[in-house]
Amino acid sequence: xxxxxxxxxxxxxxxxxxxxxxxxxxxxxxxxxxxxxxxxxxxxxxxxxxxxxxxxxxxxxxxxxxxxxxxxxxxxxxxxxxxxxxxxxxxxxxxxxxxxxxxxxxxxxxxxxxxxxxxxxx
Length: 122
Hints:
The protein is mainly α and 122 residues long.
């Protein structure tokens, strides 16, 4: 039996996997952000953060990749959440900008799987 079929056939497990990833997506970037604030001053200087995120070609590549990929996924999230008439989307929208995209994308997938489970029961 293919292990991917377990996730495909069990939306409960898949939804909780997304929830776990959203927790990691909140904690890991926040740890780095706290380290940034500690190393570069007690406040979070967004201009310095952006400058460092573009300090070399590797950082530029990751920053631009995230900008384009996250933008596309965010547009999909807006459309998909309306199609499924999802609730509590404000958490995803605010979380994208206040926590991290690494939090909001998997959290949206968690909410989406829960909504699909709910719709399948009716």
